[in-house]
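Go through this pair.

…
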Amino acid sequence: KGTISTFSTFCRKQGWEFCSIEFVQIPKGATKKAKTILQPNEIQSVFEDTDTNNLEYYIHAFRFLILTGLRRGELCGLMNEDINGSVAYIKRSINRLNEVTQGKTINAQRPVALCMRAIQVLDDQKTMLKCMGIISPYVFPDKSGNRSNSNNLYKCWYNYRGKIGVNCSLHELRHTLISYASASMPEALLKKNVGHSKSMDTGIYIHNVEDETRQIASLLDKRFNGIL
């Protein structure tokens, strides 16, 4: 219903006519499109890209998505004040209409563990913004320092993936993290980190969460150290 409502609002803003399809039923046996994820050599290509003459502006954003499994709207809405040491607190998301929302689901607002590589990516992002003279409250702003548009981020990844020769979509960077992490991380921990389990709401600062994020970060470091 939320998706239909959002699309209906978009149509009205565009002056288009909208016909609801809420009564259309998809057969249970319908074939689903297989998910594509980055292979180890493709992950290496993203992290080893140092073409200083033609470096993608959002390269650190792409790397951060791979290392954290954030949704693109969550990344666009991430602010500097949301980062606390080795934890990123997801508090908002930016939808395709460039509107601030509470996230895709009730479980979206959550603490996300940052492995050492993710923390390094944040440092690299800060260095890049400083060199470009960009000051912004957002972690991954656009070149004007404003909040990044999730649609533009999608287009930038589409162009960038062609440069490095991969077929993985921007959202499938999230599936990449989930696929690799699931091999070494308990399902309950993984679900909490990517926003697939019950939200802890105001309890996100309690000690057991700190212990969990440290455990998650350690497991992610071990996993990506074997790839990078």
Notes: The two ends are 41 Å apart (CA to CA). Confidence is low (pLDDT under 50) at residues 20-24, 199-207. DSSP finds nine helices and five strands in the chain. The CA atoms of residues 26 and 32 lie 11 Å apart.
